[in-house]
Amino acid sequence: MQRSPRSPAGPDVAAPALGRDRAGLVESRGIDCVPDSERHGTARELFSVWAAPNVSYLSFVVGGTLVLIGLSLTESLAVIVTGNLFWLLTGFIAVSGPAAGTSGSVISRAMYGVVGNKAVVALTGWLISSLYLALNWSAASVAGLGLAGRLGLPDSAALDAAVVCVIAGATILVAIYGHATIVRLYTALTIVLTLVFVALSVMVLGHTNWSYTPAEPLTGLGHLVVLASGFTIVASAPLSYSNSPDLSRYLPRHTSGRAITLWTACGAFLPSVVFTAIGALAATTLDMSDPQAALESVMPHWFVPVFVTAVVVNTVANNGLTAYSSGLSMQSIGVRLPRMIAVLVVGVIGTTMTLFALLVFDFLTAVNAMMELVVIVTGPCMTVYATDIVLRRNRYDGELLHDQSRTSPFWYRGGVNWAGVLATLGGAAAATLCASSTFWAGPVSAAMDGLNLAIPVGVLGSGALYWALSRAFGTLAPTSSPTTARH
């Protein structure tokens, strides 16, 4: 049996109860290593874990947005497929979970160093995750409040707060119960949500204008600008999920990396493509600037509460993964809280952000702006992680990764792996210069009439930099013993 490493993350990390990863029981482990004796499951279970969050109302919203910004149906469908191919990257980094037996927010110490990793995880695994919690809860709350209005409930700030708190509470409950409950529950949710959203899709298809063309077809550079913007919006979703190792870390150590990659990627890719495409088809005849009203207009009255319930359930599934990983991220940066309490703290922060967003910002504007800008950070971080897996051949020793002393192989220089930090900062800086949204236009993008090249520049630049700097700095020493290396 592996020793349980001491870490500053709290008592549940230092001395976990064994054999507690069972559905219906609160998961006892935090970021500590999962010993081989407790590994279980198959890669196939990852399909439903990633499908349930992506049978999503936001997919309809994004699909409708592509048509609203001026793309044709053919262009919208092409952007949807190509942007969602980034789910392969989400699936690929999941292979590090079983190799190390710990969370992605701990594994990334190999890329950034013991100290440097805390800053990166605080931003990507905590702050940005809290923003996504707020975004998804806002979407579900808008739908829930619409149903409340149909039922005759008076519009008020108290009702807004009550709806948000109910949805947030259900989400946090899922995150607290943790991994085994998520795996079991999301299998059922995938089936139920798919049935509801397929039924809605059939209704939408009956109102689709298959010969749709934009009223003013785009040409020249302006056409390319809109294509790039649509691609960025779609690709931002898979690039935001750097938590896939958290959901695979209980798998047996020698589970096929190819199987982990494909089951994870397919679980997210298939529903994302299908329902985002349906959103684009809906926009050919419906006004998707108000997506909830537009979709409800093609439903029979009895189906509206079914649809709204599905939106809320999907949000709970989506944010359940985010909140679960955010709790682990909080532990990995040194916050001395048990995982359950860390999840509650994240939930309170996300709920506060949701209430602010719901009362202050226009929902559709917030969705587009966040999806266009968040890739400035998430793209380089995901690429550096994936590049490290390639360079180290997915050999990670969870015990060594939990060693935060100055003698740790991940202390590097002053606790910082400058190869990872400089590659991420360089990629993010380049992406910022090339980014464009309603709130920001980088100088490179502005010089090209708003062409958004944040993803290709950030992803390719950070990957190339990390590859070169890792070799130049000599930061790729072996990080696993022969008994823990994945073959």
Properties at a glance:
487 residues; mainly alpha; Hydantoin permease; 23 helices; globular; disordered N terminus; disordered C terminus
Q: Which whole number gives the mean pLDDT? A: 87
DSSP strand tally: 0
Task: Fill in the CATH topology.
Answer: Hydantoin permease
Oligomer, anyone?
Answer: single chain
Order of helices and strands: HHHHHHHHHHHHHHHHHHHHHHH
Helix content: 55-70%
Largest sheet: none
What is the general shape?
Answer: globular
* CATH homolog superfamily: Hydantoin permease
Q: Can you characterise this structure?
A:
The chain has a single domain (11-473), classed as Hydantoin permease (Orthogonal Bundle), CATH 1.10.4160.10. Helix 4 (73-84) packs parallel to helix 12 (220-239) and helix 10 runs antiparallel to helix 17. The relative contact order is 0.19. Mean pLDDT is 87; it is low at 1-19 and 481-487. The protein is mainly α and 487 residues long. It contains 23 helices and no strands.
